[in-house]
């Protein structure tokens, strides 16, 4: 003889069973609904001597041609936090080094690469000054050890010597190594914990230099007409920024002629190729130095355990 349960008790059991099945799905749905989405990385001004980003609080973006276009560091034009404010300051610094700092070509190219760290989108979203890999700072120090620097009167950081500075001295008289040079110039430095450690989350590692070189190659495929138009635009912008005395000097020198602009165009193309070679050489040298220091470390380890 079977005993039938009241209908209400059957319904209660059925509801409990359904709730037990549905509750994990409900919890998962609620977690998905209320869990914060991964925030998009946004530009964070670097402080110190670096001009603030106009794109502060917004993601890195592509820069369009116009008054806000990059005057330097154009390899980052497709995605950057920079505009003309950052690149003009960097351009002035690099010009000083090239014209009055008595620097080698390699020094100028590597210093330009160092100054352009502020326009790397990965650097732009990090808080604090641009974080440079110690190995890259060492590379810059080796190339620029005999160049002339001075302490900037406004920012109190080490900068290439200009025509108005009273006290100028070679880099080796100010600092003794690459880390000190980068820090004195207003950058942060990431020092590896042990020789041969893989450099990550810092600007100037082999991986980041390879990435910059690849971007440079992909950006270099532009029509010759557009390249010449860009050169003319750059020249006119420089003329606007020059004081009257310098404008007269350039005009007398014939640099405003079309032939002069064509020479500038050829020099610009040659300069870009030299920069690309410098980036690739720096990456290779850092890779070989890393391999050498790693092998030396392992050798020491074997001797200690023998």
Q: How large is the share of residues in beta strands? A: under 5%
**H-E order:** HHHHEHEEEHHEHHHH
Euclidean distance between termini CA atoms: 86 Å
Number of helices: 11
Content-based structural category: mainly alpha
Main sheet overview: 3 strands, antiparallel
Shape: globular
Strand order of the biggest β-sheet:
3-2-4
Question: What number is the mean pLDDT?
Answer: 74
Task: List segments where confidence is low: pLDDT < 50 over at least 5 consecutive residues.
Answer: 221-232, 242-267, 294-306
What Rg do the Cα atoms give? 28 Å
Q: Report the strand count.
A: 5
Helix content: 55-70%
Description:
Residues 297-306 have a biased composition (Basic residues). The protein is mainly alpha-helical. Among the domains are: 41-56 and 79-204, no CATH class; 221-291, no CATH class. It is 56% helix and 5% strand. It contains 11 helices and 5 strands, in the order H-H-H-H-E-H-E-E-E-H-H-E-H-H-H-H. The chain has helices at 7-34, 84-100, 105-115, 121-124, 134-144, 171-174, 178-184, 206-219, 224-241, 244-252, 258-305, and strands at residues 131-133, 148-151, 158-160, 169-170, 188-190. The strands form 2 sheets. It has a 3-stranded antiparallel beta sheet. A two-stranded parallel sheet has the order 1-5. The chain is globular and about 45 Å long.
């Amino acid at each position: 003889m079977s005993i039938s349960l009241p209908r209400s008790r059957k319904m209660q059991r059925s509801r409990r069973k359904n709730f037990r099945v549905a509750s994990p799905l409900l919890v998962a749905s609620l977690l998905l609904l209320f869990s914060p989405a991964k925030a998009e990385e946004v530009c964070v001004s670097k402080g110190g001597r670096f001009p603030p980003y106009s794109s502060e609080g917004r993601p890195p973006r592509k820069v369009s041609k116009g008054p806000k276009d990059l005057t330097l560091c154009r390899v980052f034009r497709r995605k950057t936090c920079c505009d003309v404010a950052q690149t003009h300051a960097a351009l002035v610094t690099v010009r000083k080094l090239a014209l009055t700092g008595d620097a080698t070509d390699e020094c100028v190219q590597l210093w330009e690469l160092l100054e352009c760290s502020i326009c790397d989108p990965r650097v732009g979203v990090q808080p604090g000054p641009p974080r440079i890999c110690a190995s890259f700072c060492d590379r810059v120090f080796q190339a620029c050890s005999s160049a002339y620097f001075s302490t900037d009167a406004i920012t109190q950081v080490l900068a290439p010597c200009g025509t108005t500075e009273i006290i100028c001295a070679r880099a080796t008289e100010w600092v003794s190594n690459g880390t000190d040079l980068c820090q004195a110039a207003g950058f942060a430095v990431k020092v590896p914990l042990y020789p041969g450690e893989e450099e990550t989350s810092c600007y100037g590692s082999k991986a980041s230099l390879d990435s910059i070189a690849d971007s440079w190659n992909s950006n270099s495929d532009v029509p010759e007409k557009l390249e010449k138009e860009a050169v003319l635009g750059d020249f006119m912008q420089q003329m606007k920024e020059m004081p009257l005395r310098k404008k007269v000097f350039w005009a007398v020198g014939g640099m405003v002629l079309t032939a002069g602009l064509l020479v500038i165009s050829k020099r610009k193309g040659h300069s870009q190729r030299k920069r690309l070679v410098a980036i690739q050489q720096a990456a290779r040298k850092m890779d070989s130095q890393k391999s050498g220091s790693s092998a030396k470390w392992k050798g020491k380890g074997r001797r200690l355990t023998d």
